[in-house]
Amino acid sequence: MSPSRPRPRDPRTLLPLKPIELLVLTMLSAGDRHGYGLRQDIVEHTEGRVALEAGNLYRHIRKLQNDGLVDETEPRPAGRGDDERRIYYRLLPFGRQVLAAELERLRALMRIVETNAAISPRRA
Amino acid sequence: MTRAERFYELLLRLYPAEFRARYGRAMRDFQRDRLALAARGRESIAALWVRTVADAVVSATAEHLRSFVSGGGVLDTLRQDLAFALRGLRQRPRFAALVIGTVALGVGANAAIFSVVSGVLLRPLPYPRDEQLFSFGHEPPQWLTSAPDFIDYKREMKSIAGLAAYEQRTATLGATLVADSRPERVGVARASEGFFDLIGSKPALGRTFVADDHDSKIARVAVLSYGLWQRDFAGSRSVIGRTINLDGVPRVVIGVMAPRFAYPKATTDVWLPMSRFNLDSLGDRNAHYLFMVGRLRSGFTLGQARAEALGVAGAIMRAEPSKFDPKAPLTPHLTSVREELVGQTRPYLLALLGAAGFILLIACANVANLLLVRGATREKELAVRTALGASRRRLVVQLSTEGAVLSVIGAVIGLALAIIVDRVFVAVAPAGVPRLDDVGTDWRVLSFTAATCIVTAVLIGVVPSLRASRGDLAGGLRQGGRATGIEGASRALRRTLVALEMALAVTSLSGAGMLLRSLWALQRQQLGFEPDGVLTAEIALLPRAYDDGRAAIFFEQLMNRVRTIPGVRVAGATGWLPVVGTGGLWGYRPEGGSYPDGRWPLAVPQQVTPDYFAAAGIPVLAGRDFTGGDRDGSQLVVIVSEKLARTEWPGQNAIGKRLRLGNDSVYLTVVGIVGDIQSRGFGDPPEPTMYFAYGQADRSAYYRPKDMSLVIRTDGDPLALVPALRREVAALDRTVPISEIRTLEQIVGVSVAVRKFSTVLLAGFAVLALLLAGLGTYGVIAYAVTLRRYEIGVRMALGAANRSVLLLVMSEGIVISAIGLAAGLVASGLVGRAIQTLLFGVAPADPASLAGTSALLAVVAIGASIIPARRALRVDPLEALRAGG
């Protein structure tokens, strides 16, 4: 739908991601989702600490869409248990690069923390 | 649609249409799932809707803000126009600087004057509901109020919520906390019960008076002003409970007032409780010594209170007719406290504001003119844009945006200028301007400046843009952009604007001229005394330390010492100095005169030492001055002013005549007649005056004042003598304070200081107006020369003489100025009438001011025309014809 920006772009220009953007991208990396599905995944993952409402969620999606990270999928064929009227979102290749770069950034932070043993790891 | 869906539709309406179009469907789906599956998440439907609504409100607001900031529609266009306007200004920096500078001048002048107006006239006084407070006195000759009158007014008047009385005087404050502090003179108000409650002011520290404090048997207490507390007690909180020494009487400090509390005067430093009135012995109806302050009951006006007070006064006079002269009835005088404080300054400030308004109008006309000229040269650009499909509305908006940009930049610079100017204003303003502490940039000033800025933008933007966009733009295109198409109409408009500028300049100039002439007329007046080279200082003896005899000896010794100071020509002393002193009026009766009791003639009393007349420069017209021989035990004498002598003994020699002050007092023999003086300064008619010899004043004049003002005529700079004077006073008595050290010239200056200051400012504004108008004329003529190069070239090629070319060009400027002058002279008549109350010895249509204005304007008009005219002479016919064919 929205015009995708000319690429290649450096994914790092978009870092750091906002927490909700990171969550949305992460959930979409596992497969296409519609809005409510994204909410449910995030609720599950965060044990209910992050429960998005429609306005908040779609404002983030708009941002991700405008930046060329995600897009709506083509209309789905009926069958596969999905509701074909639904609008699904998918992660674009550039979105995947941005997500990877963000995770790499977080990993580097983790390394600092672990090297200095600044925070004792919490046992799950 | 279910109810939930319908409600969600409403929520979606909160979002901008664009967002709704893109995500509306997805959000509806989302919400449907949310509702359907809420139960599974153990979420109540109510909580779900609360979250949904909160989310919708927050998100929709954020979305609207976002689309507002990122632009689109109108805002996009505006952004374009702004960028366009700014680019245009950058391309023509000189033009931009000229326009912005002119606007800054106009707006700055207005903001500067308005912040003074706002601080002095508009800001409320620091008392709650200050519009209800009024001061209450009587018309002359009583001026003040007697204790029985006060009680009657307070009891009878229904339109007031309260009434309090107070007395004012100065007293000597003994040594205080501050290191090596000397005894100092402070302003004291003795206030009746309820004074502070009535004004509604709480102390900054401690308390004000309670009922017991007004009982004369209880310990003596005092409340200090914030200023005195800071000055003499270094702001120490331990001042409460400390004992101060006031005129030798110990008093316990119980409170400190708030910083801005300044009632009755800014110079009041100590408040004392007035003893409660004893209803059995209230004293004489004729002893008018109380000031009063009242508060109106809610819903009543000052007019109603005035009418009621008049009724009460009538009843008082009817009850004791023998006490009142029908020719001088007891007439209440009620003024709102604010009016009393700023009333005299108001007309000057409003005149200044009017002049600043003129400056702004002229500045706008100038800028509009510049934009018109530029509009003419931009015809091609506008024509091209029209041809490309821009609507006229679009062009008008764009040109107006330019005007707005110019006026906003100008206004911001102007406001900055105004803030600086106000600092200077406050620093150089004379002492007579009240409430200068309140002058500053507040929300009133900012809103006023914003309004000025909008008016400016409209004036300078809309006129040229309507003008330019209405023209035959296609014609402009055809002619390849040479500015001739709409020239005729636009030129007429420009000439009208310049004529208007000239008219405004003439009006300001003649107004300023009339005020200048008033100032001169005032200062040319004979004061009756000679203020040049005279030093004055107040010496206050403590009544407890000095009885009448000792006081007389002190002043005699002091005068003898002062006379020996090198540079002193002659020195005397008086109870009240002219202009700043107010001694009231005393009744007297000439021997053989037939005046019933209570209807005696009144005169200003003065207790003076020998040589006072010589020191002050008052001529002794007949008889003699007082001498050292006029003392206790010798014949009681009086010296009268010429006016008194002429009133009482017309056509006779007053010397040797006698008068007395009361039925039981002894007769005083007139030994001298002195010249009349304007005892209140410039512009006040002289009052009959009687002078008493200080050496016998306790017998001849009720009492011998312990506060005397020295009047010392010197050979050189009066202030150079101050150290020597201090030494001589200290040599006699170290504890005697010497205060109010000023030259007599400074004192006299006070009476015209505000007038002088505002007149100078107005004259400055008028000159500025004239310069701006001259600049406008110059601009129009210069541009006309540019446009008529071709015509001039042809004329010169055909052999026109220089003189005729010069005339051709100059005649335009002169005609415009003449029209402006004529209109301005008519308007001057109106302005003259508006400022009539400020005029002195000058008629509202003062021929001299108008003639001077016309002459000045003629010079400027010729000057503004001759420069471009001379340039016209340098036109090379060949070149002009080649370029203009």
Quick overview:
With 124 residues, chain A is mainly alpha-helical. Helices cover 48% and strands 7% of the residues of chain A. In chain B, strands 1, 2, 3, 4, 5, 6, 7, 8, 9 and 10 form a ten-stranded mixed beta sheet that branches. In chain B, strands 13, 14, 15, 16, 17, 18, 19 and 20 form an eight-stranded mixed beta sheet that branches. In chain B, strands 12-21-11-22 form a four-stranded antiparallel beta sheet.
Task: Describe, in plain words, how this protein is organized in 3D.
The complex is a heterodimer of chains A (about 120) and B (about 900). With about 120 residues, chain A is mainly alpha-helical. Chain A has a single domain, classed as Arc Repressor Mutant, subunit A (Orthogonal Bundle), CATH 1.10.10.10. In chain A, about 50% of the residues lie in helices and about 5% in strands. A three-stranded antiparallel beta sheet of chain A has the order 1-3-2. The longest helix of chain A has 24 residues, at about 95-115. Chain B has about 900 residues and is of the alpha+beta class. Chain B folds into five domains: about 5-70, no CATH class; about 75-125 and about 345-485, no CATH class; about 140-330, no CATH class; about 500-525 and about 745-885, no CATH class; about 540-735, no CATH class. Helices cover about 55% and strands about 15% of the residues of chain B. Chain B contains 26 helices and 22 strands. In chain B, strands 1, 2, 3, 4, 5, 6, 7, 8, 9 and 10 form a ten-stranded mixed beta sheet that branches. In chain B, α16 packs antiparallel against α22 (about 745-785). The chains are: A mainly alpha (about 120), B alpha+beta (about 900). The interface of A and B includes residues 34, 35, 54, 61 and 87 of A.
Q: How much is the average pLDDT of chain B?
A: 84
Principal-axis shape of chain B = globular
**Low-pLDDT segments of chain B:** 473-486
Computed CA radius of gyration of chain B, to the nearest angstrom: 38 Å
* N- to C-terminal distance of chain B: 78 Å
Overall radius of gyration of chain A: 16 Å
Number of helices of chain A: 4
Write down the domain tally of chain A: 1
Chain-averaged pLDDT of chain A: 82
Query: Largest interface, counted with CB-CB under 8 A?
Result: A-B, 20 and 24 residues
Termini separation of chain A comes to 43 Å
Number of strands of chain B: 22
The main sheet of chain A orders its strands as 1-3-2
Unreliably modeled segments of chain A: 1-5
Number of strands of chain A: 3
Number of domains of chain B: 5
Beta-strand percentage range of chain A: 5-15%
* Total of DSSP H or I helical runs spanning 4+ residues of chain B: 26
